Amino acid sequence: MRSLFVLPMLLLTGCQTLHFYTQGIRGQVEILRKSRPNDKVIASPETPEAVKERLKLAAELCEFASGELTLPGDSAYHKYADLGRRHVVFVLHAAPEFSMEPKKWFYPIVGEMDYRGYFNEADAKSYSESLREDGFEVHLGGTDAYSTLGFFHDPLLNTFINYPEIDFAEIIFHELTHRRIFIKDDTTFNESLANFVSEEGIRRWLVSKGRATELADYEERLVRRREFYEQVGITTEQLTELYASGLPEETMRERKREILDKLKDRARALQRRWGGKPLQEWLKLDLTNAHLLALVTYNEQIPRFRKLLQEEGGDFEAFFEKVEELK
Q1: What is the spatial distance between Cα 324 and Cα 326, in angstroms, rounded to a whole number?
Q2: Do residues 223 and 205 both lie within one domain?
Q3: How far is Cα 65 from Cα 177, in angstroms, rounded to an integer?
Q4: Fewer Cβ atoms within 10 A, N terminus or C terminus of the chain?
């Protein structure tokens, strides 16, 4: 996930907007104030050994990202900040009850984006309630990492420092991709690109380490991920057709619930086939358009980028040059 909160105060209008940017600036200042060079954190006897190992791993991952993925691995993650909370940002997506078009917010410099982020959970919940009162469906969730797109040196954070190695590496590759390429006004493009690069980066990282068993496990994880998102895609298409049908709202509301219930049924079938409970928490959600859009944003264009990398023979520098031409 990525967000940007460093914006000119002169461009602010309205109380809600003023509050949003003010809290954003406070949150970013907190991160900068609490950031410490990794070598000093590692040298401190008060730092847990697990954190020290993760900081060392981050250095390896950033070097790999620079050399093998042509990402700006030298521009971030050389510092560490403990924010003393579980999530760094609380992000919300919103959509009308009968539309699969996300609500968009305009930000100077970065243009329109499909989500809004707050450093304070109470602020995020308050704004979510105001959106619901205006008739929007809202999905609000905590996010553990984000990118300032090169405006600042993004540090490693306590919010994801203890992630398992693969998830930890995915975050670093994802956020570094945002630092290399960001296309204004296209959230889905940016997030799908970062997800694709992070997935391919993990493959190459595991190959470079000769960890064939873990690579096979990761490939299986990606297969399951694709199977799940395929079902989400089917549902979004069904809902889009429903909302364009012109049926009375009560009829659409009833059919919408049926479509979402069937998605959960298909997800339960996937879970039974996979074994374990990988979708257990997601199945507890009261699904809305906003929930689905939050998923689509991060995955919709991955096949497009996979094809492009294949066309460039797996060469990431050539790949990114082609991506730049798409701006």
Answers
A1: 5
A2: no
A3: 9
A4: C
Domain count along the chain: 2
Distance CA 35, CA 71 (A): 22
- Those residues whose C-beta lies under 8 Å from the C-beta of residue 199, and which sit 6 or more positions away, are 170, 222, 302
| 195 and 101, same domain (yes or no) | yes
Tokens matching residue 318 = 């050539």
SS3 content of the chain, % helix, strand, coil (to 5): 60, 10, 30
**Pairwise CA distance, residues 69 & 200, whole Å:** 9
Verify that 43 and 137 share a domain, yes or no.
yes
Distance CA 105, CA 136 (A): 14
| Token pair in block for residue 233 | 């895609």
Angstrom CA distances, 113 to 28, 193, 214, stand at: 19, 15, 35
Residues 142 and 242 grouped into a single domain: no
How is residue 29 written in tokens? 């200042």
Q: pLDDT tens per residue, the chain (327 residues)?
A: 444 433 333 333 344 577 888 899 999 999 999 999 999 999 999 999 999 999 999 999 999 999 999 999 999 999 999 999 999 999 999 999 999 999 999 887 788 999 999 999 999 999 999 999 999 999 999 999 999 988 899 999 999 999 999 999 999 999 999 999 999 889 899 999 999 999 999 999 999 999 999 999 999 999 999 999 999 999 999 999 999 999 999 999 999 999 999 999 999 999 999 998 889 999 999 999 999 999 988 888 999 999 999 999 999 999 999 998 886
**Structural domain for 158, as ranges:** 9-214+302-325
H-only helix segments in 5-157:
15-34, 38-43, 49-68, 121-133
Q: Which contiguous run of DSSP H or E holds residue 290? A: helix 289-296
In the three-class reduction of DSSP (H, G, I as helix; E, B as strand; rest coil), residue 142 is classed as strand
DSSP 307-325: HHHHHTTT-HHHHHHHHHH
Range 71-101 burial, b when 16+ CB lie within 10 A, else e:
bebebbbbbbbbbeeebbbbbbbbbbebbbe
